[in-house]
Design a protein that fits this description.
Blueprint: H1 2-29, H2 32-49, E1 59-64, H3 66-69, H4 80-91, E2 97-101, H5 110-122, E3 127-131, H6 135-141, E4 147-148, E5 175-178, E6 180-181, E7 192-194, H7 204-211, E8 220-222, E9 236-239, H8 248-255, E10 259-264, E11 272-274, E12 296-298, H9 299-312, H10 321-340, H11 345-370, H12 376-405
Parallel strand pairs: 1-9, 1-10, 2-3, 2-10, 3-5
Antiparallel strand pairs: 4-6, 7-8, 11-12
Helix pairs in contact: 1-10, 1-12, 4-5, 7-9, 10-11, 10-12, 11-12
């Protein structure tokens, strides 16, 4: 009976220790510095260990590069004549839809504005253009300060003025959609996307997918950031400066029945976003006067990843709340086993260090092997906390036993 009671008490202490260590791991893991480290380790895995992505056969990007704007008299806002010519050239090739990731909320040269309006009116393919929704709805869309996407200029000009809709000249001629990108509140990285509308405006990628009758996913969705085997993004990217001399037959081969996204990609621009690929050496098919920020992507490419997620339903690997809770419990259980192992404390410490190394190594192996994102921070904190607690409890019981002997 005494042995049974002691066993029951030990079991209760062990369960309490595991639960307490797991709870503490989740609480500490939610702290911004710890979460930043965990996000960092996630991005390392995404950048370096992701399986190669296949080349997209549905999405093409037309990039307004420096060369396309070099000979123009002004670049802010982006010269509408350039956008008009691109629309006409792409529309002639019978795309499924055209997305314009360029804010059109400021008037420019009247003749250029009229040329763009004429191109929009003549377009046979559906055209989706980003708007700045503004207001509190935009601020709460991502659960924190959102970032508007939509290139204003080729250079890092400070925007002046905004409008909640397309200019009255363009609004009846295109589908208005918001281009908000949700950046992580911890480190500002664009990992997830919300496809819900803001006010009357659908999300840019959701509006494009809707052209084909596809419903975008709901809630915060992790985007599937992967590169091809050649370390390039999976979307064919064509420089706007090189498109003018491409014959119609070749343009049809490029754009027919495709989603074609138009956006600025100049490294001077403010629309480049840090993504989970921030540790990857991305191979760009375009020539830049200035090297792009390492691992960053232009907003139009982030929207291309979002559109791919909406079209295919494939999301990125992320450790959600349940995975974090499971990791904390698993780590706490392992830590409890290590801490209760009756061996010299130095041996327990060595085994604990080996256990922590196994957590780190196993997380990288699991992602490389099967794409499973194991939460390192919560698992390691649970292991360390439970091992320390078990060792402290063991020392307390041994000290009490020695006092009873005396």
């Amino acid at each position: 009976m005494v042995r049974f009671s002691r066993t029951s008490a030990l079991t209760r202490r062990t369960l309490l220790l595991v639960g307490a260590a797991a709870a503490c791991a989740l609480i500490v893991g939610a702290a911004a510095p710890v979460r930043a480290v965990d996000r960092y380790l996630e991005d390392v895995r995404v950048s370096l260990l992701s399986s190669p992505a296949p080349q997209s056969d549905a999405i093409v990007i037309v990039a307004i590069d420096e060369a396309a704007l070099a000979a123009l008299e002004y670049v802010s806002p982006i010269n509408r004549n350039v956008v008009a010519r691109l629309l006409a050239s792409i529309d002639e090739a019978a795309p499924r839809a055209i997305g314009v990731d360029i804010l059109l909320d400021r008037r420019s040269d009247p003749r250029a504005d009229a040329a763009l309006a004429a191109a929009l009116e003549a377009a046979r393919a559906p055209v989706v253009a980003v708007v700045n929704p503004g207001g509190e709805a935009a601020s709460s869309h991502c659960g924190g300060p959102p970032i508007r996407s939509g290139t204003r200029a080729a250079r890092n000009d400070a925007p002046t003025g905004r409008d909640a809709t397309l200019l009255a000249l363009y609004e009846p001629l295109a589908i208005s959609a918001h281009g908000l990108l949700c950046l992580d509140r911890v480190d500002g990285v664009a990992r997830r996307m919300r496809f819900e509308p803001v006010g009357a405006f659908p999300a840019f990628a959701a509006a494009l997918a809707g052209v084909s009758g596809i419903d975008a996913p709901r809630g915060r969705v992790a985007l599937d950031y992967r590169l091809t085997a050649e370390d390039a993004t999976p979307f064919m990217t064509i420089a706007a400066s090189a498109l003018g001399d491409v014959p119609l037959a070749a343009r049809k081969a490029l754009f027919a029945d495709k989603f074609v996204l138009i956006g600025g990609v100049s490294p001077y621009g403010a629309d480049w976003r840090e993504t989970p690929l921030r540790f990857a050496d991305i191979a760009w098919p375009l020539a830049f006067d200035v090297a792009p920020p390492s691992g960053a992507l232009p907003g139009v490419t982030v929207h291309a990843y979002a559109l791919q997620t909406a079209l295919t339903g494939r999301t990125g690997a992320r450790a959600g709340a349940w995975a974090r809770a499971g990791g904390a419990l698993l780590g706490a259980a392992l830590g409890c086993v290590i801490g209760t192992w009756r061996a010299p404390v130095a041996a327990n410490a060595v085994v604990g260090v080996i256990g922590l190394a196994a957590v780190f190594g196993g997380a990288f192996v699991a992602y490389a092997g099967v794409g499973l994102m194991i939460p390192i921070a919560e698992t390691a904190l649970g292991l360390g906390g439970a091992a320390f607690g078990a060792l402290a409890d063991r020392a307390r019981r041994e000290r009490r036993a020695r006092l009873e002997i005396r």
